[in-house]
Structure formats: C-alpha cells, structure tokens
# Entry
Amino acid sequence: MAFARLLFGLVVACLVLPIAILVVIAVSRMLSAMGDLGGAAVLDRLALAGGILWIILLVCLLLAQAIHALGRGDDETGRPEN
# Structure
C-alpha cells in the first residue's frame, strides 16, 4: 500500500511540477518586462531548479514503475497477476 502511495505521489508531482515551472517562467518574464531584472533572475534560477527537480522525479518514477513491474509475478499462464 505504501508503494502505491509513493507511485501516486510521483505521478502527481510529475504532472503538477511542469505547470508550476511555466507559471514561474511567466512571472519572471512579466517582471523582466516591468524592469525588475533582479526578481526575474531569481525566478529564472528557481525555474531552472524546478526543471532539474522534474527530471529527477521522472527518473524516480521510471525506476519505481520498473520495480513495481518486476515485483509482480507471472502466473502459470504467462499473464501478469493483478
């Protein structure tokens, strides 16, 4: 059950994080257009960190799915168990 919650959390994070990154980039561009270059630079770095975190989460999700698939055994008919 805990593994299913982990998978669910990873899927949600992998779906929500790109949206959050796009919002941060949009606000950064807005600040840049308003002349606040310092704030725009901070938000650009934050968006970069979010992108790196997103890549790490995608790799973790891939590994978790692989572990989950390997943990499910096959029955005698060759079909995966539920």
